[in-house]
Amino acid sequence: MNDRENVNVDKTKMDTCGCWERKESLNEHHNRPGLPAIDYRIGTHSTFLRRMLLSLSLNIIKDGPTLARLTTRSPDDPAIAMLDAWATAADVLTFYQERIANEGYLRTATERRSVLELSRAIGYELSPGVAASAYLAFTLEDAPGAPGRATIEERLKVMSIPGQDEKPQTFETVEKIEARKEWNRLKPGLTVQQELIYGTTELYLAGVNTRLLPGDAILLVGMEREKLFVSERWDFRILKTVTPFPEKEKNYTIVTWETGLGHDKPPVDPSDKPRVFTFRQRAALFGYNAPDWKGMPDTVKKAYDPSYNKDDSSTWRSDWPDFEIRIGKKLLFKWDNVPGSDWEKLKEYLIQTYGTNWIGALTPVNNGSEINISQERNLLSIRLNKEKSKATRAYMTISDGRTDVFFAKMDSERKLKIYEKNKIDLDAVYPRILSGSWVVLVKPGYKELYGAQEVETDALADFMLTAKTTRITPDTVKHLSWFGLRDTVVFAQSEELEMAKRPLTRTIDGKNIELDCQVEGLEKDKKLIISGKRMCVRIADETEGLSLVPPSDFIKPKELKPGEILSIIEPPVIADDRIRWHLMDREGFDGSLNIEPGGKLIINKGMAQIKADDISFVNKDGNIVRLDSGQEFYFQDPPFSVAEGRLEWHLTDNEEINDIIVSIESEKIIPVHSEKDDETISEAAIIEYVTTGLERTAIKLKESLASIYDRHTVSIYANVALATHGETVYNEVLGNGDGTRPNQRFRLNKNPLTYISSPTPRGIQSTIKVYVNDVEWKETPSLLDLEANSQNFILRNDNDGKTYLTFGDGRKGCRLPSGQENIVATYRSGIGPEGEVGANKLSLLQKRPLGVREVTNPIAASGAAPPEKLEDARTNAPFTVLTLERIVSLRDFEDFARAFSGIGKSQAVTFWMGEKKIVHITVAASGGKPVDPKSNLYKNLRKGIDAVRLPVQHVIVESYRPDFFNLEARVKIDPRYINDKVLAAIESALEKTFSFENRSFGQAATASEINTVMQDVEGVIYVDIEKLYKSTGSPVLDQILTASRAFLDDMGNIRSAELLLIKPGGITLTVILNE
User: Fold this and answer.
1) Would you state the CATH architecture of domain 885-959?
2) pLDDT, tens only, 390-402
3) Radius of gyration over alpha carbons of the chain, in Å?
4) For every residue of 164-231, which 3-state class applies, written as one string?
5) CA 531 to CA 684: how far, in whole Å?
6) Tell me: the pLDDT tens digits for 783-815?
């Protein structure tokens, strides 16, 4: 500061007489706009001293003598020394004058106090910071005798478990909730009742010890067949595969078959609520092994077929007569012989009984007598198609000793009548076939179901065979005679199998969650925490050529390997004839994977919205739905595998009228469950409404879940209360009121005061409550607009973070009434980023409510912000004047968001989406953290914007997308400098330049800029940048690394802006030693 050496004569400044130039003048200032500091000094020690030395020879006093005789300029001369002293004083004064001048401008001020006071001049207060918030999940005791319910009061304290070099942080609940033990950890439904609909080809059976094998038969039959014999709503299938799953969480068996359930011609649906049976016994009919009819002697043939004539080939047959299950004789009857009849009279066999004349009958016999009966061969082609007759007293029967075969009606009708009480004789005795069981008869091309009404053992002799058999009396004779004795297979000894519920393969995402049971008490606006692992997909074996494409064109895609497991980040969409998945690998590389589907679908906008292009689908009711071009559908559920190489998509339109299922081919990617070591993630949700069914409770959320969860890993916490950082100080006495003093001022004893996020223009709200003579006085932003009797106060934070309360003066706000210790405050203390504790850290209850077992925070605390920094205040203070707490222009959106406490950066852009103009705001939290859309900070920011914007404006707020780059460079260092210190200085300069505070959304990083930063470090001779690349790209030298502003991608989705920063630990520097 002292320039005494400049006292020596500078001959360049002397005129011809040896005197100083008389043109020596004070500094002139030309400060251009935007400077970080202004030049305000009129001079320094040297300029002041030169001017005074020059003045020694000047006639300063009019008509007065000059100091012509003082010719010395030696600094040790007393006169010159005195001038030097005054030059020093002037130097000091002008130095501080310049400092004071700089402190008078917001841009150039360097002291926090200066910025604070300047900001107050325009009504802006530096943000004191914001307290972190967290959702606490309480677990109640569920042991027998436990209360089962508990009340979680407001201001319940919970402390964190500190980590290394951390201090415990206290949080307090800010709301009162009721907790129940059944709400501890809700589970989504893992299984669902099987819908055995038309076309179904698989079935889940309970357990793994079904004793089923491929080739076994199963029957699916319900009440329809039990109530009505003629019902065809039953299905008999031969199993193709039997696959047991013995795992504890599964314990079921999947069986499959070829032909789907139901019938085509005529169309018949399966039973609505079928029971499942298998058949433990296969048998044949009695007579299946009868000797060949052609080899029988004529006497035997004549005995079994009276019409047989060895000389008449027309009477020959290929097999035994009545070689099928006997259900009666197909005979026409009449009262008397009709003239002209050509019936042959079979005198030995046909009879008359009870007044009914049968053809050729000669001798009446008693009803029930054992007789042989034959049939006119010309009638063999007659088949009964009429409705069965019911046996009444008007019918007479004739028995042949084995089956009650036919009867006649005593009236004038000429019809064919049959008494249908018949038997099924098996080839052997099967003691395990029981009455009440089911029997299926199968022949090539046909099968029929019968109920076993009676089961008995009998001895039969027929077809030259004798044997003991099991005789079954069926519940109907429908088509019984269609089954020949040789080609019929009998499936009997039915055994019921228990059906298992089908495991749900759908993920947990979107807005709808079905719980695994009925849960009472869940209501609208109740907070939940959904916790689980992301659903994954697996690249199919032998699949090659798939790549994960990052959103940036400047990052190279990553080739995927067969069998590789990836996590699903967002629901897949169908776009541009492809299924597009947003996936992330185990190393954190995320991008899009495109799979070719079978049908053509075109994306319109939104991650879960498609539109159709003249496509027809089939809805759940089986009806064809014609989709018009441009019609939009939403994904109700992510796709799940329905067969090999096929995915099923559940879609619905805007009005939720058309609910369709789309099945497409996708053989290259297979949805799979998460793995044991996968990260558990959590998010908060709020209930929109609750629906309770017969077995389960379904929840609809107000907002879609941000992630896609593996259903089997999900837990839902319902005993959830919001808590914020800070500990309450109760009833602190601030001092005594004095009615004679205006604007009394008091200081809080415990600092810092807690401020929480709120939807106000500033984005914060204090937690203090002040009572004067036990009457609450309210906080106000300013005393200026108060009336004389307004009981309000203002809060101000000084430069040291101490909080002061100021009351009115009697004109602008009421004065405090006089009293002893009558000013009392209750407030909370604690604020800032130290409150952002990790997940599951808040677990220490200072006072445990009755019935509460434990507490935790499944989601890390978030939303905190430190007291506003000087540079931030310099930027934010003008925003209050620019916006004036209203939003009109695009810049207003950006300014309002940036000035909101807890927000560190913002950028607003507009897009046209259809006929709507969308304002998209990209934001980042203070310190560079993403803004969680489920956090209080995000919600309050949205509410604050909505409160001051025009209602016609459509606004989207999204967190930014962080991106990072790596640098590898060689540095030549001046040998006079210490290498390590220079390298450390280079790293520090790079980290500062490319830090969150100093970069903007969409700002690129260039090799030239990096070279300049490194080159400016003292001791650096030159720099050789070898590699400059994004962390997700290949290690190459890119001259420019771009970062995008918010943009519309090719699917019509808005992608938020990127912020490109240098990766922590991503700088690699080496010293050039010899070159």
Assistant:
1) 2-Layer Sandwich (3.30)
2) 333 333 334 333 3
3) 48
4) CCCCCCEEEECCCEEEEHHHCCECECCEECCCCCCCCCEEEEECCCCCCCCCCEEEEECHHHHHCCCC
5) 9
6) 988 999 999 999 998 878 899 999 999 999 999
